[in-house]
Sequence to fold (248 residues):
Amino acid sequence: MLEVRNIDFYYGSFHALKNISMVVDPHTITAFIGPSGCGKSTFLRLFNRMNDLIDKTRLTGECLIDGENIYSKSVNVDELRKKVGMVFQKPNPFPKTIFENVAYGLRVNGISNRHTLQETVEKSLRNAALWEEVKDKLKKSAFELSGGQQQRLCIARALAISPSILLMDEPASALDPISTAKIEELLYELKKAYTIVIVTHNMQQAGRISDKTGFFMLGELVEYNDTKKIFLNPDKEETQNYITGRFG
Fold:
């Protein structure tokens, strides 16, 4: 389970996230929507401490995974990132073979047994609904795959290190409608085993695939509720205006 309590986040003197509290239930898909620059991606990156890589950032409040504050000094960030996988907006395969892309995280973590690598790569590619398309091309460059296949390869790479949480920052924004549909079908299957948090500009996508939706504006979590409630009967006027296209 993910939980944030009274989170404020700053880039230098810029107050990017303002007093946010929320709970994300296990084995659900949670979508974050809102206009560009509203803080969705910054908030998403809190869960695997990717914002730590940016100079002059500051955070107050608590960000908990299974009850543990992941910003406490005792937390090993490398171990945290094994638990929390991430898929980015544009497919970013490594300049390696399809097999080595998926095996990369395993090798980095000291796993070199050939049988284990083969077994895990196949399982991850199957879980990413890519195995049947690439099983005869594992020694080919990942760059030979289509954009949609590359994104599913990046999902397989994230799954290979057995995370429990999957963060996705606009994972289908660079893809065509058919590839987008495949990614959405895949996410629906993956939530049986993972907790998924997705940032999307595509409100129809949020409506189709998510269990809960959070609407962000100007660094604030304006409203967070069941997706059906957010889209059909939101509590806040700002949410209604955004959903109906009156701004943003």
